Amino acid sequence: PVAVKLSDYTPYPFEIEQVDLRFDLDPEDTRVRADLKIRRTGDKGAALELDGEALELKSVAIDGNALDTSAYELTETGLTIASVPDEFTLTTEVKIAPASNTALSGLYMSGGRFCTQCESVGFRRITFYPDRPDVMSSFKVRMTADKETCPVLLSNGTPGDAGDTGEGRHFAVWDDPHKKPSYLFALCAGDYDIYRDQFTTMSGKVIDLAIHVDKGDAERAAWAMDSLKRSMKWDEETYGREYDLGVFNIVAVRDFNFGAMENKGLNIFNSAYVLADETSATDADFEAIESIVAHEYFHNWTGNRITCRDWFQLCLKEGLTVFRDQNFSADMRSRPVQRIKDVIRLRARQFAEDAGPLAHSVRPDTYGAIDNLYTATVYEKGAELIGMLRRMIGEETYRKGMDLYFERHDGQAVTIEDFYACFEEVSGQDFTQFRRWYAQAGTPEVKVEETWKPDSNEIEITLSQKTPATPGQPIKQPVPIPLNMALLDEEGNLAEWMTVLEDEEVTLTFDLPEGTKRPLVSVNRDFTAPVRVARSLNREERLQLVRLETDPFNQWDGVQTLAKEEILALAEGSQAEPDADLVDAIATAIEGALGDPAYAALLTRLPDVGEMFLERQPADPVALNTARKKLQKAVADKLEDLIIRVLGQPSPQPFDPGAEQAGTRALRTAFITLLAGSGREDADTHLLKLYEAAPNMTEKLAALRGLAGLEGQARDKALTDFEEAWKTNPLVMDKWFSVQAVTGDAGTVAKLASHPDFDLRNPNRVRSVVAAFAMQNLSAFHAPDGAGYKVVEEIVLKADKANPSLGARLLTAFEQWRVLEPQARSEAEACLRRLQGSDLSKNSADIVARALG
Ligand code: HT7
Ligand code: ZN
After folding, report:
1. DSSP 129
2. pTM surpassing 0.90?
3. Pick from 349, 341, 433: which is nearest to 392 by CA?
4. Which stretches make up the Peptidase M1 alanyl aminopeptidase C-terminal domain (predicted)?
């Protein structure tokens, strides 16, 4: 594909002052009439260029005068009118067929209802328009639809006139007073059950809130509503941001390419992130709903009121909004636990991306396919950069900078430079060097070397940084790295400070009081910077550090590092069995943390196989998986009594999705996982009992997952029971597909793909099999015989035809192929070459070409 470049940016030469849209909705033949009030703002001779894709043009007129076909040029990608006046109204009429739109971009149908997805370039599949975020306009929408199938008609803004139009049809008008780019346009029409509530803002305005769901699902939207109200309050208290319309609507749809979409006043959600109750959703689902509802709501200010000038600036809204939602979750739950979860996600997804052929900077300067820009780097690393900014200037100055940003740029489409100018102004600091973080791909590695001088009681700490080369960026500059550090001894913290490592290397010297014993150095506490820390400590020193560490993140991370080294040693054969001292230390850390069960649960987690790919190459996923299981079994043996005791206690009742109970359940499910990996003869019968007795989905699913990894009758019984119980609930059935995909092999995936309920058109279902297998079951996906690749290839080729966005996302599972042991590597390469020779969508072709490099 032809690359789009940041350096090619030019402003649009026209202003669209007003957009009037009229929809005559029909699944096969929807008519869209657009009246655009246009004024020239740029070059006198500029032609009017409008984007348009998969549209059947019926008519085009300027100021009411129909244009002859010779007056415009119509192509596969748009409509150009060479000569237009300086001020005029353009009217176009197009025909579209929502029922045949399988790409789920533009106007499409899900579960018999109309819905839209316009970010990033879906609006051009609805009407001809300058479909770019820097063209902001006021939208008025009138839609007509069948009254029986579509009693509810929604769009952005606030509702206006509504009524019958005869012949069983009716209409509704929606008006959005806030100027917005086309990617925030939304329309939904259908028959829903509605969960309603209200929120009173800090200035006393009463907002009507409504969540629209499938028939019969209304009560399952209660948690999403509760999360929405808490998000609204949090944004007022934390950022001084008030909601700006009288209504806020959410619509849940079954077929959706992403988690959710922040359309102005009308958020559209993947139903997986709206619907939850104790019997059908896990605590992870409740947590995800809370954070995604918050994320989309927070976009109202960081994304909608102030948007991106162009798609290269995507991190401006996404990194910042992820940072905001992470802090919301930390305030709702436990800050250290939230930090650990955020870092697990960052390392699993973003560090892997940064280390492979798909590496790109947080603000890339070129892209091949826009959909492929929605990455962990833009979102998660983007959030880390805001976190570093806040740490470097302090919370108060950060808030001042945000206030200035909101005040200065409200109603505008801006850049990262505009954002940082606000922080430079309030802090007096220069962020030129810091902005390298936005331009450079790759995860910096910070090396820590210590010298202890007992004669002078001096400790010298040398910190140095290096960012590895990434595709297209062989040479890297140093970036400012804020590192929270401490010196620890038996009593606690001897000293605590933050160093910003600006240059390639810095040496810090500390004179300590006479008689001080050699202190331990704690680095990157609370994960202040998204870097990899390299230290040449031996096991003894690491064990000591875990014991004395006062920072919960670093204590957890110390255990992770020890576990990683152990798994590597076992996988490489330099050690036959797990070291008893190490297993003792892990068990002791877990036992010591039982007062905070959510944290204790995280301590039981061993690093995933994929995390080890970053540590030593070539990586052998099968050996790593076997080694990981060995260590897990040793920890399970060590904790056997505790596990049996904890699992013998009843689960907390009545169910509450809040942090406290969720923490207790997190420990219970962690122990269920350990039990499953214990190798005990009675593990399967014990798990089956737990499965049958579990009063909530969190524990039921943990037991089912444990059983799914064990052959035998208990497994079959539980899987059959689960399917029978939940076959009419698609979201729960996704879990049934997923547990088998993460524990089975290529044959399991083939079997799941031929199940009557496997639906290639439903992204959730496809992801529950293919993404679960290819991204969470690495030893099977990367099986040396290539069977994992073949089964994924077959399904992805089919999915990609209907839905390029889905196809391309699944193919990112191949991003690590170059680091694999020779057999898997050569099978992966062969598969990628076959894919390259196939008829792929533009999105997927972009991923495959970059993966092959
Ligand atoms: N801003 C939203 C992005 C999104 C999206 C992007 C590409 C294709 C489909 C999509 N659906 C939603 C989601 C968010 O970050 O809030
Ligand atoms: Zn977002």
Report:
1. B
2. yes
3. 433
4. 540-852
